[in-house]
Amino acid sequence: MDIEDLRTFVEVADAGGVTSAALRLGISKSMVSRRLIRLEAELGTQLLARTTRGAALTEAGATFRDYAARVCAEIDVARETILPAGELCGRLRIAAPLSFGPTHFAPVLADMARRHPQLHIHTSYSDRFVDLVAEGFDCAIRVGTLQDSSLIARRIGPLHGKFVASPDYIRTYGSPETPEELVAHQALMQGMETWQLMDGDRIMTVNPRGRFKADSGVALAVAAAAGLGIAALPDYLIQDYMASGALVPVMTRHPPPPAGIFIVRPPGQHPARKVRILTEMLIECFEQAPDPA
To answer: Distance of CA 217 to CAs 12, 75, 154, 194, 214, Å?
Structure first.
């Protein structure tokens, strides 16, 4: 029984279809189908019921999926065990933010690939919220304040930000000084989120309103510089705007609370060694540059 056939079956089972599994694996749909057919022939039973919407596990497939996943995991451990000390192999799928990842995380990932030539690193850069389990990622790098979830998180560095607006916006609408005044202004947001701000040592929560939203912090910085409203943005995104005077801080007596940079992974007893090593490399990187800018 081919280990790649087993891996492919697990990916199809988790992704819910051949197309999604092919994207995860980086191979063609026809290759995925051939591997599934070969595995089912080897077992003498149908594992997946193909439909127009994807592939659903049969009763036998649901039972076999857990065994197959454990076998694949054990093979990965065995491969790492017999490799030279410190060497990694297999595949590492990472979700990273588009607004921050290519400049701050990509160098670390490139260094990891250089150190471990048998490791395949696949990184998806997007500011959307990625479902690690449903989309088959080993881990994600997230910035800001973590939402409550079942994911296991490790803080790898600090992150600071500000409320900012353009001088033109302030001249037209004024500069808010209190949380009550802030909610009366046009807010530039990534979604329907709440904003947190400091009131002395206390964290307050407000519900901002606005007509301009984007799933990219870079886009929100551009909108703020264009005078569309007030944005809460990390320092690394606004440093050039601040230096040129295109953006200025507001609500300085009530700044956003300090946030962080985190690596998160699906729940499990122990993280994969490749995730542990990536975490260590990121912590080392951000210890040397504790406040990314």
So the answer is: 33, 40, 23, 15, 8
